[in-house]
Structure formats: structure tokens, C-alpha cells
Specification:
Radius of gyration: 22 Å
Number of helices: 3
CATH class of the largest domain: Alpha Beta
Largest sheet: 4 strands, antiparallel
Distance between the termini: 46 Å
Number of domains: 2
CATH topology of the largest domain: Outer Surface Protein A, domain 3
Strand order of the largest sheet: 11-12-7-13
Shape: elongated
Length: 196
Amino acid sequence: MRENRGWEVFSLLTSTEVYEERVVEVPEDVQLTIEGDSFRGYTLKAVGPKGENTRYLKYRGVFIEVGDGKVRVYTTSPKKKHKAMVGTFAGHIENLITGVKEGFEYHLKVVYAHFPIKVRVEGNEVIIENFIGEKHPRRAKIVGRAQVEISGQDIYVRGIDIEECGQTAANLEQATKIKRKDPRVFQDGIYIVKKP
């Protein structure tokens, strides 16, 4: 069984037929560098106007090449999983480039019917006080380098990493989840209203 697997990996490396390919354009104001290979994984580093970000991508049989202002992601395997990973890698690279060029922003709204919710940032946490009249404040973690800005009933989560911003926004939404009550009646909470 091991011999077959070895030949399979060898054939991936030596095969010249490309079964799936995606090309991602790199803007002029973004510098993208790549290190590694398909076996050890690729470390992509993007530097742009908003800052710099890195991403580690690894899937054997999926190859990444950078050159001439383009990133080429392709596979020499006819398998569905390899073809699917080409699209996944291309999506991650696009998000990496967009993050350092424009950044990402999630817009959330604080909604309450009776008890006014007080929201404030404290260190790497968002403190939610007086939620449905609770005495104990609820907390939501700010992930990584995401920035949280509170403006009245609006909360903005900004950053260059879409996963950090998305997880921070999700943490805020989950922190105000009401359990064991009718959600049609108790609609207080913090809700994502706009995603990037």
C-alpha cells in the first residue's frame, strides 16, 4: 500500500498535465512573496498600504507560483479534492491581498427593547453590560489584530485579516445569545448587519 502512495505522490510531482488552475492578479501597490513547496507548505507574505500579513497554505499536490504580477495556483491531480483545494487556496490568496490593500470591515448593531446595553472595549475584550438586565457583564474576545470601534449603537470591526475580523464579529454576536427564551420575543443582542 505504501508503494502505491509513493508512486501517487511521485506522479503528482512529475505530471505535466494541469487539471485545475486559478490565476490571481496582484495589484501594483501590493508585494507578494512566497516560500516553500507543495510538500512543506507555502508561506505567503503580502505587504500593502494597510500593513503586512502572512498566510501558511499546505496541501500536497497543489502548487503555487508567483511571477509577473500574478499568482498561479494549480494541480496536476485529477482528484476532486485537489481541484477543490485550488479554489480554496485562490480564495485565501485573494483575501490576503484585499486585506493589505483595502482591509476588511464588519458592521454590527446593538439592539435592545427595554434594558439599554452598554458596550465598551477593555484590552482585548469587549464588555457587554446590562444585557437584558443581567448584573454580570458578558465578554467577547477580540481576536488577533482586529480593531473594534464603538459608535453609539453601531460597532465596527476592522482589520487586515478577514478571519480575525470575522471571528471577532462572531464572538460579539455569540456573546449576546439568549438561551431558553423565545427568540421571537427576546430579540436583544448584537447582530452582524454588514459583512465585507
